[in-house]
Amino acid sequence: MNFFSKQNHQPKAQLLLAFFFTVFTIVALGIDSVFFTNQYFDARGITNVLAILYFGLLFFTANLTLRKLMIIMVPLSYIGEIIFCKILGFYHYRTAFIPLYVPFGHAIVYASGYIFADTNWAVKNEKQIRIFFIGFFILLFAAVGFLLNDMFSLLFGALFFLLLKRKCWQNLYCFIALCVIFIELVGTYFQCWTWNSKTFKIISTVNPPMGAVFFYAGGDVLLVKIISILENKKLKMNIQ
Fold first, then answer.
1. Is residue 116 included in any domain, yes or no?
2. What CA–CA distances, in Å, run from 131 to 82, 84, 127, 136, 171?
3. What pTM was estimated for this model as a whole?
4. How many Cβ atoms from other residues are within 10 Å of residue 125's Cβ?
5. Which of 115, 128, 207, 212 is the most exposed place for a label (fewest CB within 10 A)?
6. Is 1 contained in some domain?
7. Membrane-spanning residues where (predicted)?
8. Which of 44, 22, 25 is nearest to 34 (CA)?
9. Which of 89, 84, 107, 93 lies closest to 42 in space, CA to CA?
10. Domain containing residue 73
């Protein structure tokens, strides 16, 4: 079976799944929450299975490009978790181990933002949406930065805008950022993970910091680069 064929692309189904992302996130992270664990049992295994199944549904309804991105996103995001969680200590999970659902969750977040950005409505209203996003994120980073003393979000929010400028202000990154903000708010509310109050022991950080969107956007740049390298290698092999 060719997992990278175009035959299974189902735009309506994948858009429905992208919208259902919000409900899925609340249910899946609620099951892994501190409250659920204390009141009932540690059900992280259920969340792991749900994340993998949801990833599978998105994958098999996606187009060829998104499938490639999702596949690479899983190991790439796990490496990112090791760096930012274990090595740099930006945040920590409710247990000592990185949950299995996390790298699949990153891919789900990315895919949902990608699907929204690729809709006819988003493409048709690209300029208006871009203006809205720029204003929204400026206000968001400024609000949490100055009102909540979230220097992390001011710093990495500025880097997020620099990245947007470099990528010609593509709305894709903003749609992904919205999904990131939602999952961060839900995950920290349920205490599935918690951001440390000081990043690098000097940068004040709220839980969660809105500036975290920069790392997803930066990960996308790296992700696309990896896909490009793999495609070029494949092309050279075919020529030979």
1. yes
2. 35, 31, 6, 9, 10
3. 0.90
4. 13
5. 128
6. no
7. 46-66, 96-116, 131-164, 171-190, 210-230
8. 44
9. 93
10. 11-239
